[in-house]
Structures are given as structure tokens and as C-alpha cells.
Design goal:
Elements (H helix, E strand, L loop, with lengths): L18 H17 L3 E2 L5 E3 H8 L4 H6 L2 E3 L5 E4 L4 H10 L8 E10 L11 E10 L5 H17 L4 E7 L3 H17 L6 H6 L5 H4 L7 H5 L10 H16 L5 E2 L11 E9 L7 E7 L3 H4 L7 E7 H10 L12 E5 L2 H17 L5 E3 L6 H10 L4 E5 L1 H6 L2 E5 L7 E3 L1 H11 L2
Parallel strand pairs: 1-5, 7-8, 12-13, 12-14
Antiparallel strand pairs: 2-4, 3-4, 5-6, 6-11, 7-9, 9-10, 10-11, 14-15, 15-16
The structure holds adenosine-5'-triphosphate and magnesium ion (MG).
Length: about 425
Amino acid sequence: MAHTLQAIRGMNDILPTDTPLWAGIETIMRNLLNRYGYQEMRVPLLESTELFKRSIGEVTDIVEKEMYTFNDRNGDSLTLRPEATAGFVRAGIQHGLLHNQTQRLWCMGPMFRYEKPQKGRSRQFHQLNVEAFGLTGPDIDAEMIGLTARLWRELGLTGVHLQLNSLGSAESRSAYRDHLIHYFEKHYEQLDADSRNRLYRNPLRILDSKNPQMAELIAAAPLLIDHIDAASASHFEDLRARLDQVGIPYTLNPRLVRGLDYYNRTVFEWVGDHLGAQNTFCGGGRYDGLVAHLGGRSTPGIGFAIGLERLVLIAAASGLDKLSAHSPQAYLIMVGSRAEQQGMALAERLRDQLPRLRLTINCGGGSLKNQFKRADRSGAHYALVLGDDELASGKIGVKPLRHTEPQHALAEAALVDLLRQIST
Ligand code: ATP
Ligand code: MG
């Protein structure tokens, strides 16, 4: 026997029992983004490797060890997107969407990172990305955080918390960089291999280390927030006042640096109690230098990404699996070939008149008893029956499946009325 083919490690199937929860969450997200005036933009899954190296930064986990990179048949180096901001900025520059304009944009789809698969961490995963260009904030910073807070409310999530920090300007960051190098040099023997490697190339990355042996050293390191410039400090204060105004609680986390190189000023993360080790499910921040860095005319930007796998875990833990009510409302049973022909036409007439009706028709024949079993298993409210008797009388049999009412016969117009009541 040939061996069974399996999905690639870390690339998960989302089965039909789970897709209703996913789709329900996605619908709530799309509606909310629409209400806030954000427009969808779709960018390719593949981009040139150089784009990600330049935007994410060479000395990052993603670029150093997580990218799916290969040469195409033409010898060009391509990479499956590990995140969406780079593609957004590339597209914005290419199509002239950024300079002297404001844009509020979003996109949803798969990302790819070669990581160790575990709960809440896979190699293909999905994100909702939201980005705004041309606004210096802090009003837009507050809007974005407010949008996420409303999303969690509308999804009914429990146990989620906002963490906030400011990274200051590029200049204050580079001054801080010197302090940090000085501090870690003093404790060189305590650095792990990764951190030694990053000490002069990108010391801020050391703060992001997940190695528990580094935790104490990192906890005592100088704080970036103590070195930020006056303009960034007042930006941050203004943002905090706005969040207080609308009643969004947060914790200041001076250790929050985020995994990507391009952030400045505001950075934030949402963490969930239900997630265990992978507890951040949404992260974002301001990246005012990125557009110019990628060759466009200087345009401020801010954005965030929600990890949908982790969001779905929180949603399920918060009791949201009830979004999954997608069983049919009616199941059409047809006995005999004449009934099958007329039944298909009846079903189409019902669908014409009741655009919201979820109607499944029996396929593959079978006895009356057999088809009733399938109708019951489908979760439908009603079985509709077309057999010899019904064809002779011109009516349709209707049997409620969820309570013990007897089967009765209805003319087509009366059936439409009945189904209209349950299909709105
Ligand atoms: P982590 O520290 O968990 O690796 P990250 O800082 O690399 O996260 P970001 O690049 O900020 O993550 O991506 C934003 C969100 O995307 C994360 O908060 C998370 O919800 C999700 N995410 C990132 N990587 C993965 C992955 N491998 N599997 C599932 N979700 C992921
Ligand atoms: Mg990561």
C-alpha cells in the first residue's frame, strides 16, 4: 500500500467544523473595519526576498531564521510573506497611494514562518493586518487601539489586556542603543550565543530574547522609555490621555520592543490569559521611517496585526463557538425519480423567493427512512417530503425535526410563508 500523504508540518487544515467560527469572526472584523472607514487591499503572498530583508531588518528572528526563501526558475530570490506591512508599503509606493494622502487599509490572509510548531504557533498562520498612512498621530494611534478594543468587545472576548510602550524617535533610539551596548558589555559572560551575536549589530533585539537564562539580565537593563526625546514623550502622553478618555485600560510595559526593526514611538500588544506561552495575539506600532527607507517619499505609518489562530483560541475559550450555527434550516427528501426532478425545481423556486434560506436537498437517493436519518443528522429544523402521495396531491410534506409535531402537508405558497419565518 502506498504511504498516506500528510500535510506539511506546521501547515494546518481548518476543518468544516471549525470554519463557521473563523468565518463568523472574519465577518465581524470586516464589518467593523468598514464602519471605521478602512478599505481592503490585497497584496501577493510572494515578494522579492530583498523587500523583507530591507523592511523587517537583517538582524531579526524572521529574516535570520524564519523565512521560506527560494529561487524561482529564473534564479530570482523570492520569499513567502512572513508579515504584510512590507508588501503594503511596497504596493503603496508602487501605486502612488501614500505621498500627501491618508490611507486606512486592511488585509487578511496567510503568512509563513519556519518556526517550531506548537499551540498558537504554526508555519502557515493567518493575520488581519490594519495599516494607516499619512497620519502622524496620536489621534490615529488611539483610533487603532480603540478599534481593537471594540473588536474584542463585539467578539465577547474575556481575559485580554493591553500593553503599551513608546520607542521614541530613531535618534533617541540610537542614543539608547549605546547605553544598552555599554550595559551588556559589562555583563558579557552572562550573554547567550544569540545575544553575543546581536550585541553590536542590534542590541535592542536582545531585550526580545525568550531565553529564561537571560531574563534577569534583561530585567535590570536600562529602559528605553527613560531615554526618549521630548516630542515622543508628549506624543505618548497625549495617546495615554485619549485612551483614558474613552476608558481603555492598559499596562505600561517598558520592555515591549516588538520583533521588527522598523517601529518608532507607539508600540502595543494585546495579551490573552487563555493562551499559555504564546500569549500575544495582536501587536502593532508606529513606523514613520519605513516608507522612506523603502524608497518612497517620507510618509508616516502605523499598523497592527492580529494572529487569527490565537484569536480563534481565545474566542473558543470565551464561549464563542456558538457562532457556528450553520446547519440547514430545511432538508428536502425526495422518493422516486419523478419526485427528484420536481424536487430540484421546487428547491430552486424556494431559493428564488427566500434568498436567506439554508436548504439542503437530498442527493444519492435512498429510502424514505434513510433520507429522514440524513435530514435529522444535518441539524435541519424541517424535513420537506416529496413522494408519490405529495406529487398526486400537489402539496409538500412538512415534518418538524426538533419537536414532536406530526407531519402535515402544505401547498407551496404556505410552505414559502412558513420558511420565510425561520430564514430571516
Ligand atoms: P511571537 O513573539 O509569538 O513569535 P511575533 O512578535 O513574532 O510573535 P508578530 O510578528 O508581531 O509576532 O505578528 C503579529 C501576530 O501574529 C502575533 O501576535 C501572533 O498572534 C501572530 N503570529 C506570529 N507568528 C505566528 C505563528 N508562527 N503562528 C501563529 N501566529 C503567529
Ligand atoms: Mg515570532
